[in-house]
Fold:
Amino acid sequence: MTDVRNLLKHMRQREFLCVRQMLEQRQIAQRSAHWQILESLSRCSMGIMRGRGLLSRSRKLARWASGWISSVSALAKNYPLSREFPKQLHPHQVEIDHA
Structure:
């Protein structure tokens, strides 16, 4: 009887470790996907501004760009990747769920 209990205990521990490992891997994947999106967005916006020569000319625009990038990063951190934009709305008309 003790062997059966030990076996069940061991199986529960392994199952718990597997679930925990899966959750950790999922969190890592979500974080890296968020950062890849943010990096490409910031590179794109900075590249556009540099290409037009605007970033070097205007401090006000540079402040706006850094504020825009930080707001995009905050949005990406708070908006789960599993949620999708509503298909019937244009991307610029997305309703934010405040729940």
